[in-house]
What does this fold into?
Amino acid sequence: MTALTTALGLIPLLYATGAGSEVQAPLATVVVGGLVSSTILTLLVIPAVYKWFVPKPLADTIISEKAVARLNRAKISELRALDAGPLWVKS
It folds into this structure.
């Protein structure tokens, strides 16, 4: 919104024909061009480039429910083995 209001405010300078317009019109052209290009970069280019460099979302790397169940069964069996006591003690 700020870039838009600034660009709209510079439109009279772009089309000015009075005294000093030979300096103000090129300056306004550069400022409006910079505002437009920075807005396009911010809204379109940067998000597209960001997707190339950021790893996959966490949701894509979460393991399946079956794998979680297998891990839980393995942990339970390990805990049962530990609960049995030391190997040198006979029960």
Observations:
- The mean pLDDT is 77.
- The first helix runs from residue 2 to 14.
- The chain is about 75% helix and 0% strand.
